[in-house]
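Q: My labmate handed me this sequence with no annotations at all. I'd like to see what the chain might look like in three dimensions before we decide whether it's worth expressing. Could you predict it?
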Amino acid sequence: MHSEITFQFEELIVYQKALDVIDYVYDQTKSFPKEELYGLISQFRRAAVSISLNLAEGTSRSKTDYRRFLDIAQGSVFECVALLEICKRRKFIYEEQHSHLRLSFSELSKMISGLKRSLGFPGRGQC
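A: Here is what I predict for the chain of 127 residues:
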């Protein structure tokens, strides 16, 4: 059942993009070797989920705390990029999926930096 109540973070385009990335990461990691279930699969999924969770939680905090949550979300984006490269080197992901995710992570990084700037903070740390 879909509720008519909307939380502030749900309206953020960057949050919606982060949810799309989660879906894609989950879909792609389904085909990884089973022995990676508690390794790369789990780590990649948790890092991807962390992006949206920090975007959401930050909106409930003070402006200063919000910036910290945005920094953590950005760090999770960078973690995902590193995990993506490991997956590519291990040949767990095809070039097309790699390129798609790399572009998505780049866009998320820029969007988070833009959100920080809109709040009056420098947008450091983008790709």
